[in-house]
Design goal:
Keywords: Membrane, Mitochondrion, Mitochondrion inner membrane, Transit peptide
GO cellular component, one term: mitochondrial inner membrane
Largest sheet: 6 strands, antiparallel
Helix content: 55-70%
Distance between the termini: 48 Å
Subcellular location: Mitochondrion inner membrane
Shape: elongated
CATH topology of the largest domain: Nuclear Transport Factor 2, Chain: A
Pfam families: Tim44
Number of domains: 3
InterPro entries: NTF2-like_dom_sf (IPR032710), Tim44-like (IPR039544), Tim44-like_dom (IPR007379)
Length: 407
Amino acid sequence: MASQLGRELVPLIASVQTQRALLALAQPLGVALGSSRAIWTSRSALSEPQKSEASTSGAGQQQSQQQQEQASSSASSSEQQAQNFYNNFKAGFEDLKNKAGAAAGAAAGAAGGAGAGAGGEPAAQRLIQTLAQDLRETLLPAQDITSATRAYTGPVAAATYDGPTALVLAKQQATGWQKVWNSVSEKLGTIPGVANLLNLKVTDTSAYKKGQELVEDLKDKYETSDHPVVHKVEELKSSMFTGSEASRAMREIRVRDQAFDMNRFVQSVKLDAPVVVKAFLKHDLDTLSQHCGPELMERFAGIFKHFNEQGLFEDPSILFIGDVEIVEVRLMDDDPFIIAQFHCQQLKCTRDKFGNVVDGDANTIQRVYYFWGLQQERSPVVTAEGKVLPPRWVIKDMMWQSMLALV
């Protein structure tokens, strides 16, 4: 088990953050050992002058002996501190190892039961893997989350085509079977009876026309019928062949972005939430235009016009942002549309251009619920370096509702 734990923790020990933590843990021991080594070196270095001074005068010998006694006492105290630190460190390590072994044994006993030999080893392996995964998630950096709503403003790859664009009619080449049939038709076309049969069209017969009229009448009666059985059949047919609206929307999302992940999408929306909300509170149209659609920007311009004329704006301080929740996934104008919800804790006050509070109270906290309507663009973006960026999610609509916070 110890060898497996060592193999699991080798990548963690190789990381910079883990090395720094181990270095910080080993520094007190190194300082203690270094001080004791320096004291012993100074003690050995003082031994030679003490011998020479002993032959000259008794007073110098007595002074050297006092210095030697002080050095030995300090060295013994340093050695004692180093030994105590080592003993504490070793005891803590042994305690941690015993706890890990006991937990592994308990997990193996619970999983194995009577057949502990068959079930103990997988349970211990799972425990080691869980411990290594927790350490890896704590010490190693997480994956970078990029913005889902911000428009790309950098250089893009130029896609130009210099070839012809006119449509040209081309004669389709006949297959071998078609060539044989054409030759047989030409030979049999000289016989009057056979020629009439070859030129006969089923759609021109009276029987076909009467049957077509009957089918059209039945179709009209079925479509205009109000019978509950007919409606039930149509609902079943729609659910079986087309699926729900959410499934069709997700299928369209996968077609446009094959690497789409709902969890990463939620994290990306939470990354954009403070930027957009703060720009909304500060009436920053330039920042909002990078995330929102043109229709929503027209609404924002009308809302901000009254406040800007008076030089007022809401306090942009955001104290907390809650988790993002997906309310609905649907299709709108054949484009995927996702409604996301989150809440922010903000200060309930309005300030002027000098920062003075003109309405509300700077000490009052309000909880504001925001609803975003996100629409996926149709095509991805290819940068000048050849990197393909997934289709952007544009904020097409935004609603908000405030209430007094209970915290």
